[in-house]
Amino acid sequence: MAKKKDIAASDTSAANDKIIGLELHKEDSTNETMTTNQGVRINDDQNSLTAGARGPTLLEDFILREKITHFDHERIPERIVHARGSAAHGVFQVYKSMAKYTRASFLTDPGKTTPVFVRFSTVAGSRGSTDLARDVRGFAVKFYTDEGNFDLVGNNMPVFFIQDAIKFPDLIHAVKPEPDNEMPQAASAHDTFWDFISLMPESTHMVMWVMSDRAIPRSYRMMEGFGVHTFRLVNDKGEAHFVKFHWKPLLGVHSVAWDEAQNISGKDPDFHRRDLWEAIESGNYPEWELGVQIVPEADEHKFEFDLLDPTKIIPEEVVPVQRIGKLTLNRNPDNFFAETEQVAFHVGNVVPGIDFTNDPLLQGRLFSYTDTQLIRLGGPNFHEIPINRPVAPVHNNQRDGYMRQTINKGKSSYNPNSLGGGCPFQARAAEGGFASYAERIDAHKIRQRSASFMDHFSQARLFYNSQSEPEKNHIVDALRFELGKVETQSIRERMLVVLAHVDHGLANEVAYGLGLSIPKTLSNHLNQSIPADADPQSYQPVVKESSLSKSEALSMASTIKDSIRTRKIAILAADGVNESSLTTIQEALEAEGAVVEVIAPKLGKILADTGNEIIVKKTFLTGASVFYDAVYVPSGTNSVATLSAEADAVHFLNEAFKHCKAIAADTDAIQLLEQTYFAKKLPEDRSEATALREGIVLQDSSKKLATIFIKAIALHRFWEREKPRKVPG
Ligand code: HDE
User: Fold this and answer.
1) At what angle do helices 191-198 and 168-175 cross, to 10 degrees?
2) What's the whole-model pTM score?
3) Cross-strand partners of 331
4) By alpha-carbon position, which residue is closest to atom 28 of ligand 1?
5) Is the CB of 200 under 6 A from ligand 1?
6) Is residue 364 lining ligand 1, measured as CB closer than 6 Å?
7) pLDDT tens readout for residues 34-65
8) Among residues 294, 323, 581, 596, which is most buried (max CB within 10 A)?
């Protein structure tokens, strides 16, 4: 029987499909006869038409030719970036009217729910690459508002590598697999990427983010999202405010360990896709709050950085994030290709009340997205593909082109006209017509980077200084990994100079891992990305400090850690498991919204000590600790003895420990934990405080164990378990 929540969701989804018109395009073959694309019923879909049973196939076989031809053309070019992604439908609702700042109807009417389609992605890898690559994640939201589509095409990091769109092809050429041998796939750990980065000091802030654990999220559902650029909100009086958009996940921001990410990439490259799909199928709808940082136009020049520079954040301590509405994803797509692959986002899709700024990266994007859809989706009518159609009616004089769906009536397809009665009419701003914000511009036509864009290090340092000790260590490890994969020594050395501009200790630690020291003489490479005729001085990075020493919002250590909802917990068991030791914990975890799976040496069922059967979800072959957030070992003499002799069970626990996860065991199951490499680190003291510090819960009483275990899982990871650093100063 469907759960109450499921029924409510399918009602909303059906209603949304109706609103956005998707239901008109759905095909359901249930109880239907198979036909050709011309509607001719097919009586044999097993054999080609041949001259005799053993003779040649006939050209005349229109059924075969139609089927094969369609198949031959099934693929379209993958996205040049963000090729690998998954998406879901949902709704957005604003909490209270934002009419003071914007006239956009979906942000002014709290009674209105706006259908949305959201696609998450990695950037560098091909469509079939792994979800767990170290990479930026795309977070693209299409709002089907009643005034037209608004696309917020953002990322899970608030800044970008470059300041000007003209550098984007260079950046992407550098990060994609190298052109001679097409290696490596979905990875930035190679020479061309770091060659480029080491010569582009403006990328330093973004590099800190990409080397942090933000680049290996635990789940799409546990990522922040950012519009990156400064946009404008415009109210019905034509008054504008600058705005930065944020998405704040209600489950908190969490990541996996790098070793774990690499492991998952082999065992389940669809890990994030599966996680999103399963959460939605089980009624655990992912939720984010929309946040805005609003800055009056008059304050444009009051910051230590330029609001138009996409390599800068506005720290939340400087301008707080107001949470103004909620996004809920409540339905998976019916068809990956038709929806997720064919959805066409465009940062230029704005509605009245939202406008652009002169951020030079944003300006270039305004051109790029339509252009890319023309090649990817094969012509100018991609807005007619069901997933891209706006809810608002479309009337204009654009006509024809590949795959035109609309049958426009009448003779006139031009404006002005008298034959068509002057239709369609233009709309005044008061009637909902889009009127661009009348920004005053009086300038020379030049190619020049503003001097206010030359501070490349202060926010990189702010980011680094805001991280917890384990997070800093992970950045060091990531840089040692990435630069360790670089083969050209001079690139590594240039990067050390860049890092020394962020933090000398950081550069020193990375250098130590690379077996190098920080070169003293390379600083002049920091201004290599300058135009031929420019004065090198005007491109010399400005080295300055942020007036903030730390920003708490930049560290995942300060994220929400009070819930285990949707977390996956493994229970290791075999025949003879103590039924109450297993079920008491399972039920307690499930009551908190966790997903529990029993893992045993073989599939099917195991027999508990009571003689009752327990369903086994995975074996040590099909399951692995990297798929779970925590692990529990129930008691039962035979079960524990079997698992203690099972190398894979011991490996499971060793990995969970290595990846700093919560581990719990019934005291009578300790024999299994004694086989692990962390046996000597098992806490003697069984107090709750110690358990929550070490992340290892050993208790007799199952109820007490459950209570402490739940708190431990909610803490996400026990990074302090990792070995302390000993790098000479
Ligand atoms: Fe994109 N980007 N981008 N980008 N981008 C694309 O459009 C581009 C940038 C982002 O799930 C492409 O339809 C340029 C920043 C997302 O379908 C393309 C520049 C941010 C997605 C393109 C940028 C993004 C894309 C490729 C520098 C974060 C995936 C396929 C000026 C704010 C959307 C496509 C989806 C996709 C161009 C920089 C986010 C080629 C030229 C900054 C989330 O048009």
Assistant:
1) 140
2) 0.96
3) 89
4) 154
5) no
6) yes
7) 999 999 999 999 999 999 999 999 999 999 99
8) 581
